[in-house]
Amino acid sequence: MADRTPTVRPQSSAVAAFLNQAAKVPAVSSNRGRLIFAMDATASRGPTWGQAIALQSDMFRETVALGGLDVQLAYYRGMLEFAALPWTANADRMTASMQRVSFLAGETQIERVLKHAVVETKRKKVNAVVFIGDAVEEVPDRLAAVAGELGVLGVPVFVFHEGGGEPAASTFKSIARLSRGAYATFDSSSPQKLRDLLRGVAAYAAGGRRALQALGQRDGGEMLKLTSQLSDPNNR
Asked: Which end of the chain has fewer CB atoms < 10 Å from its terminal CB, N or C?
């Protein structure tokens, strides 16, 4: 059975806004976090997939001291094709899976991603969902309804929007808000921003808000500015 994998695209300053929003996400208490890493693998996203392959390894490394992270890769492409790979805590296995994915033109299937997250967390708690995409071709109200269900279940969606343009931005922001997650933009010229965002979410999924704040304290610079907002009572 052929293996398939998605594509990612990055940018950078929204890390501050992202971490600010992440401060409002409920704390995680499990020893090993569970993160769904979902991506749009339609034809438009192929050019930046290579960056995603390199950056996702940082997610795993960031969580070693926090007890590790189980990640499930999910993606859609072509005509109603959706795939969710087995859960793994192995960065090399994830990389190999991503390298085998090819891209096919098609419409977005974000609702399937969100519904999949609902099903998975009802089986066993999912601590967070990362979604990386550049477009929305679905009914916003339908996406909002499922995002709200994830919010009730305590599964925040962290939406990383390639390009940041409208009308997709409004829908992506709604998904993040209703699920109690966060929204940030990126582009292919700023891989460091996407790296920081992914590391931040991984730290959150594995160790909760405190782990995310500790990351900022450790790395300083832009991450420190962002995480300093997490301790601001006005941001909670």
From this structure: N
Number of domains the chain is built from? 1
Asked if residue 30 is part of any domain, the answer here is: yes
Q: What gap in Å lies between CA 153 and CA 150, rounded to an integer?
A: 5
pLDDT at 169: 95
Rg (CA), the chain: 16
Structural domain contains residue 7: no
Cα(177)–Cα(179) distance, integer angstroms:
6
Which residue, 31, 39, 27, is CA-closest to 204? 27
Residue 71 lies in a domain: yes
Which tokens sit at 229? Answer: 């907002």
Q: Which domain holds residue 50?
A: 15-230
pLDDT digits (tens, 9 = 90+) for 164-223: 889 999 999 999 889 988 888 877 666 777 777 788 888 888 888 788 777 777 775 445
